[in-house]
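Chapter summary example.
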Amino acid sequence: MKKIMYFTYILYSKSKDNYYIGHTHDLKLRLERHNSGWSRSTKTGIPWQLVYYEEHETKSEAIKREYEIKRKKSRKYIESLITY
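The structure predicted for these 84 residues follows.
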């Protein structure tokens, strides 16, 4: 049986020069949804590019890490993750 992995991810919108942080169990589908306008919070930044992700064994770990990154409220921190 294949184990489901969860991800914390960061997207970048060149048109808005903005980052978006989220979590999911299917990176490909989630990126497609962001780029099709499915999510109200990212609709105006299309196209989005996946620039970073981390794998987690549980959904709660992925959510915890998402909020950890968001709490930093730091573009510099986000960009340090991406370039690591």
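To summarize the output: The helical segments are 27-35, 59-72, 75-83.
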